[in-house]
Amino acid sequence: MAFIKNIATAAPDSELVLQYRNTGNVDVLGTLYSRYMDLVYGICMKYLQDPEEAKDSVMLIFEELVTKLKKYEVGNFRGWLYQLSRNHCLMRIRSDKRRPVNVDTDLVYLADDWHPDDALRKEALLTEMEYCLENLAAEQQTAVRLFYLEDKCYKDISEETGMEINKVRSFIQNGRRNLKICIEGQVLKKTK
Amino acid sequence: MNGNSNIYSADDLARYHAGGMSQSEMHRLEKAALADPFLAEALEGYAYDKAASDNISLLKKQLAARSKQQPRSFLYSPSAVPWLRVAAIFILFAGMGYAFYRLNDKENNKGLSKNTVTEKKGESPVISPSEKSADQVNPIFITDPGSVVPGRPVRINPHLPAPSTPTGQSSADTLIRDATFYTEAADKFSGLKDNKETILSGKVTNDKGQPVEGAVVKITGNDAAVTDENGRFKVQANQQQANMSAATGDYSANNRLDKKMGPSAKNERDYREANTNLRGAPVAENGITLHKAVENKSDDETTHHQLQPIDSVVFINYLEKNLKEVMMTSGKPYEGSTILSFNVNKKGDPENIKVEVPLCPPCDAQAISLLKKGPKWISAGGFKRRVAIEY
Question: How far apart are the C-alpha atoms of A131 and B157, rounded to whole Å?
């Protein structure tokens, strides 16, 4: 038992998933889940906005894991857990008709694997980056410049520009998505 | 913050919202959150909980305790999916209820002749209106002569086999398949305080003067009787003014009787005898002449007080011609009943139609449409009628 625990605490997610699927040992799954429980709680708080319901949901999501992880092949446990947690909370909101569903579409995050840092690090893309930044909407351009080029946090950008923090986040989110589309388009043009 | 830059703890996320982070720490976290939706949404969530660290500590204890337990069934987990258990219990009870309903339904259909008809030797059976439904609907359902069930909703089955004709009677006179009458609200009564219980006896004949066996005779709010082989009936009447009706499958009549004033209807031919016999007589002879329903339809003077040309047989014939099967997506037809309730207006048309028991949306729609376009109905004195349309 001590041996399993030692492996469990040090092993990567994929190994613990495999170990749980092979042994059905809930202790192993507990170790894996504890790595992300803080984030799961945050997700539940975001959607349910009630600590008691969020705590209840964190434990219910663990119970879902106990059964679902045996049924499904899971490649990326972290990403899968994120979707599972989100779906659980949305289902709970839907089942509770008293609760108004209010999900701000501006703040729905897209799980893209692209990051502006990757592009910024690449000298070859700097020209395109500058060109695309210039073509962004004014508010998006300001927010992206302040955040990525001047390393300012949301709070500082908000104070400097007078925009709400949520708006700042939204402009950055949308700005970097538009940047990605623009840069990819520019690169494609040059390769043709 | 944890050693791994991708994993922020609850403390970090709570500190971010509490303003306990430096500008560079906040920027790093925000940057990480932009690249990681899981972290970004969790970060938002921590804005709503100022005691997040305490709650996380509690959760860790719960998780540790849970991790030591063996895997348990999803259904029997006390904290997990209580709704699923509730659903299971509901389904169980619904199933039992449905089974009970079906059994009861079959029992009633099978055992109609065992019903509450009290029959004395040499006398017409007298039916007591003991079972009145909550909404005051008091229909009578007959499938064969001599078997009457008061208090049951009308059940019209277009697929019922035609009943056998009793020997010695012509089919037109004796065909009783479904005959249904509703009690009507007695309007105003007058006089005869000491004459509270009157036995009315009489004879039901057809338009040729022949006795009609098996006709149902119904007095408002009182007993009902079925005529014997000589067309005779005996029925108890407690009220001083009442509607009296009698019907077989093809013939129907409805007389308004007033023990003191005589019948108030305009059809003199029908009421002449009743008027004579009722006056001052504790046991009155009441003659009811049945007219063919179709003939009554053209007579505007009598239609208000005579049964309209809709008894169940008329409606069954109408359904047989017009009711179409509704198919499921699997290609099989729906089987079951749409039960409708409705009021009958003065013209005999159904109104305020409601689906009491639905079968399927197209089935219900067809049932309502057929009822609306169908033949006229006998007024139920403001009370509701029910009809089951079987597919």
Answer: 79
